[in-house]
Amino acid sequence: MLTPADARAQYRGGLVAPTSGHAPGFTQANLVVLPRDWAYDMLLFGQRNPQPVPLLDVTDAGSTSTALAPGADLRTDLPQYRVWRDGELVDEPADVVDLWRDDLVSFLIGCSFSFEQALLDAGVPVRNIEQNRNVSMYRTNRECRPAGRLSGPLVVSMRPIPAALVATAVQVTARMPRVHGAPVHVGSPEALGITDAARPDFGDPAHAEPGDVPVYWACGVTPQAALMDSRPPFAITHAPGHMFVTDVPDAVYRQP
């Protein structure tokens, strides 16, 4: 099994792959990078929407490092990035060294990949790991609480869970609110405004086994939906499913 440092070294070396199942037992994080002029809006957006946007760290302007992984480089150590201009996706590079500026503030946000090992330890299968796929993610009809210039819908990740184990999945993930916590919905996708579950807005479609039911968690891609709707002049994010692997054990964010 890869250590977090080994995983980051592979991404820095050119590996592009979803990070679900990589360095199991260590917390993964979503990344949002915005100019300092938009940083307060993002900080307030996280404070007002803690389930989809649980803030784990916020850097000083211009910093390329985080306390979550001393020595790592936020410009190179994710497998894939996204670059946004005026709310439009313009590139998905393997690093953002040439785009980095002294006024950029990075936000590290909890990720549901961090509770997947806890689900496995409790005997709950994680289909996206079994199938070597990125998790399914959807925009919903639920609006986040706006913050300054940032507004947008809740994005959810979906995992098919055997019906008999849904209660276990809820209990396990509820103990980890810093990485999205308990599900926001179980069952019908239509209740979230999802009209075609076979075509996720982000990630890959999931293959459900007989007896599985869809379970939906708040997702750290929610800020990317807000970027699309709110159109800041410039932003960098992780590519959905291609997270920053930290040195922090998942157990740090697990309540007794």
What characteristics describe this protein?
PSTPO5379-like; PSTPO5379-like fold; four-stranded antiparallel β-sheet; alpha+beta; 2 domains; single chain
Portion of residues within helices: 10-25%
Overall mean confidence score, pLDDT = 97
Please give the largest β-sheet.
7 strands, antiparallel
**Total helical elements:** 6
**Which spans have pLDDT < 50 for at least 5 consecutive residues?**
none
The topology string of helices and strands comes to HEHEEEEHHEEHEEHEE
CATH superfamily label of the largest domain: PSTPO5379-like domain
Strand content: 25-35%
Taken from the alpha-carbon principal axes, the silhouette is: globular
Structural class: alpha+beta
Radius of gyration: 17 Å
Query: In total, how many beta strands?
Result: 11
CATH architecture group name of the largest domain: 2-Layer Sandwich
Instruction: Output the CATH topology of the largest domain.
Output: PSTPO5379-like fold
Number of domains: 2
Q: What is the terminal-to-terminal distance? A: 26 Å
Please write the CATH class name of the largest domain.
Alpha Beta
